[in-house]
Amino acid sequence: MLLTRECDYGIRIIRALSDGQKKTVAAVCKQERIPEPYAYKILKKLERAGYVQSIRGRIGGYVLVMDLKRHTMYDVAYAIDEKMLVFECVANDDFCSFKFGDHPCKVHLEFDRIQERVVKELKAKTLCELVEDQILN
After folding, report:
1. Angle in degrees, 0-180, between the axes of helices 5-17 and 127-136, rounded to the nearest 10
2. What pTM was estimated for this model as a whole?
3. The CATH number fitting domain 5-84+126-136, selected from 1.10.260.40, 3.90.470.20, 1.10.10.10, 3.40.50.1970
4. Span 15-31, pLDDT tens digits
């Protein structure tokens, strides 16, 4: 599957933090209806990508440090799961023995086309465009 549940949750975590306020994991999970065990794992990946910063301590939490105007859904999804693939043969040419030759595999070519289209669509809008209604309210 192309977008995993973790990718969905990652984008929703970014949405929850888009107001610029520091929030606890519990607050983010409550706002976005995300199970806490998932949230900790995803926040670690988002922090590694430089999209969020953790603030430790008794009054700790997470704060968004990415520029929503410069990043897209693709960026967040890629930070969560680098293998966002429609089908395995899109990433691994060895997997599809019919891809090359006199008669390339039309199924593989179609998966390639779909993969490119999905990536293009995920990159089409900035995160700011996706959450601007929330920021304005």
Report:
1. 50
2. 0.83
3. 1.10.10.10
4. 999 999 999 999 999 99
